[in-house]
Amino acid sequence: MSISTRRRSLAVALAVLSATAGAISSRAPVAAAPTVTLSVDVASGRHAISPDIYGVNFASEPLARRIDLPVDRWGGDTTETYNWKLGSANHGLNWYFSNFADCWEERFDYCTTGRDFRAYQERIEFDRGVGAKTVLTLPMLGWVAKDAKYEQDVSCSFPSDVYDPQDDHDPYNRECGNGQRGGRFISDPPSDPKRAGTEITPQFNKEWIADLVSRYGDAAHGGVEVYALGNEPGLWHETHHDFHPARLSYDELWQKSRALALAVKEADPTAAVLGPAEWGWPNYFCSSVDRADDTCSEASPDRAAHGGTPISAWYLRQFNEYEAANGTRLLDYFDLHYYPAATYEGARYEPLTDVTRPLWDESYRDPSWVDAVIRLIPRMREWIADDYPGTKLAITEYNMGLDVTTSKRLHTIIQADTLGIFGREGVDLATFWPMPSSPVPADAFALFRNYDGDHSGFGDTGVEATSSNERKLAVYAAQHGDDGALTLIVINKTSKSVTSRLRLTGFSAGPSAEVYRYAGNGIERVGRRKVADSGFTASYPARSATLLEIPPA
């Protein structure tokens, strides 16, 4: 992900789519009558909750061990140009289209120690050490970094002696520019991919997977489990303009995806394939070719040439037709990226916790440049059901607090709500993308994965849980398959304490429940409270997430 790239694309898309902490009391406070009703029916809506929804991109070891990290993704813009043979990547628009070796970090003394270091090996070995599944992004656009250097003679695609004047230059290496003049990419002379890159075919990735299998075993025996087909292809003409200045069409996306997926399945038939890892709203529906004239509709030229079908649905359909004709499934996960849209052009969510509603709410119109009902997860499920049944649903980049708030407490509440939604709505795999302004809300993950410090987690079988006002209180419920215990998470999104009656059906509850809560100061054990078979009334502090662990009778 590149914020600068995303902001530029969102600016274009504006035109594109103008189509109080305290224990739960066993008695309700006298002055606070119930204002929101919660209902949990353990006999209804039963469904498996995938543990893979609690994943992260490039997780740290303390976090991984605290939450028993299930999935770790090696992804982002630089992985699209990663040369595994050299251990280097071109950083594209994110850093002056320059190549950098894996060892450029301070801990490797900026490549002066002489160690032959490969970042991907370190990541895979880290994942194996903490017991996490690896999602590894494979370069798909066709070019990778041609060398592995740092500071000395760094290769870059827009050298000053050829392209100056340019709008900006690397402050540490004035010889490399950003390839733009007056806010537009320089076309004369055109970019030359050979300045910083070397051309590859799917064979390059096939050899990489073979090497990984020789080192770690195949996916079925402890090796890399999931391979992603590139990263955000709808932005290649910006993020990787030096290597792929042309806008990506429907047909090129399919051709490259099919070829790379075949290479994966040939090199490791037990591995899963994930794609297209697309960046955002406009490119869920139209190709980058369509967006060249700032429009996106069924009548857009590339989309019209493909029956007016949204590119996401069309992408799934191609894989479905391939399997029908050849008997081989090439795509296992349908993956889209999602970030809050109402953080640009002065738009904002009111209240801020409404930021999670576009993930699921069938009636919520996003108050942003999108100006539409997004309903991301239901929409993705429909595309899968209609165009390639059996495909799993993934969201491998998201950060719902990004640019929405600077409050750590609110970030945690928003993330806890997001994880509850993922489990309720049937997402199969998700990995959070951390940013300096919005890092991993560790307590939100721990609430679902290790709320008591002894690695107890939210249940694995989701059950029906509803709120009469989800904008104030959200409730998520799941039962443990091993001991039948019921776990409830109640999230108060408001700035005031809220009292609520929770009706419980389909479950014979033990006499009392353990209560844990996040209210801005880490997860604390509140104590025990009585629970009746019919439920209970409780007050939930402002901006809090409360977990109740209720044993069966």
Provide an overview of this structure:
Helix 5 (202-216) runs parallel beside helix 7, helix 7 crosses helix 10 and helix 12 crosses helix 13 (442-449). An eight-stranded parallel barrel has the order 3-4-8-15-16-17-18-19, surrounded by four helices. 24% of the residues lie in helices and 23% in strands. With 553 residues, it is an alpha/beta fold. Helix 12 links the parallel strand 18 and strand 19 (429-432). The chain contains 13 helices and 28 strands.
Concise structural overview:
Helices cover 24% and strands 23% of the residues.
List the SSEs and their pairings.
Elements: H1 3-16, E1 36-41, E2 47-48, E3 55-57, H2 61-66, E4 71-74, E5 82-83, E6 88-90, E7 99-101, H3 119-130, E8 133-138, E9 143-145, H4 160-163, E10 169-170, E11 173-177, E12 180-181, E13 184-185, E14 197-199, H5 202-216, E15 226-229, H6 236-239, H7 250-267, E16 272-278, H8 282-285, H9 301-304, H10 311-326, E17 333-336, H11 376-387, E18 392-395, H12 408-425, E19 429-432, H13 442-449, E20 461-462, E21 464-467, E22 473-479, E23 486-492, E24 498-505, E25 512-518, E26 523-530, E27 535-540, E28 544-550
Parallel strand pairs: 1-24, 3-4, 3-19, 4-8, 8-15, 15-16, 16-17, 17-18, 18-19
Antiparallel strand pairs: 1-21, 2-20, 5-6, 6-7, 9-14, 10-11, 12-13, 20-22, 22-23, 23-28, 24-27, 25-26, 25-28
Helix pairs in contact: 5-7, 7-10, 10-11, 12-13
